[in-house]
Design a protein that fits this description.
This protein is an alpha/beta fold and 290 residues long. 23% of the residues lie in helices and 32% in strands. The termini are close together.
Amino acid sequence: MLKKLVEGFIEKSKNLEVAVIGETITDEFIYVSYEGQSMKSICPVFKLSGKVERQQGGAAAIANHLKDFVKKVDLISNSPDEVVKTRYIDTADQKKHVEINKFNINNHRSVKVNVSDYDIVIVADFGHGFCNDVQIQDGFHLMCQTNSNNFGFNRISKWKKFRKSSVCIDLREASLQMNRKARFDNQQDVNDLYCYELNTENLYITLGSTGSLFYDGKNLTRHESFKSEIVDTIGAGDTFFAFISLATNFLDPKERLVVPSLAASLSTTWLCNEKSVTKASLTSYANNFI
């Protein structure tokens, strides 16, 4: 069953032309070793190991996940050096000591995207400014992320004037949108969110380790997460969103959550965005659950 779903997804995706609009985030990892605390101030001291890694995240990661599945992906984004998230990682245990963010999207010209030029248009708004002046028509797929830089200020209702094909948010973003903490373990909570300034045909909520749900105003479907040996959960929600944007267009509502959930699980088996999901890796990974 799972293998057939993956094969069907791959077949139905192969001729699609996709646009991905949003901020590209450069994830920088600087590896260090902890040497103790400064004698003159309350400050930890680290020694650089010399190892530095840079990865493409944000909208670029979404586009990279889809490249092997569709005919064409156009990435409409900022330059990679405008949004950089630098993390200092301990070589001993791979834990993050500190993160330093650089945001420098200030004077972008307005971006105009004709939805009718593509089979699927994806807007990934990470709240760093690139999407503020996007000119677009109804019918796109939207993710509007809450993070430490924009907590409470990048709610998905900022896009309420547009009629969306789908909206994808996580549990925290859903609660912020509702102005109250909600578990969404019953249809009334989900319906209240669906009717509150989303203006979308399809709603998807990722629930972390417990899975995800889909709602279209009538039908509510849930799917448990695929369990894996987790290396890093950063980017898993973006991966889910990438694949749900495709699945919305051709999969039955009862089956729609399966492949995106599988892809999201696969993306937790590596560090951040050091790899992208491919047809071969997704097919191989599916064999673990047959």
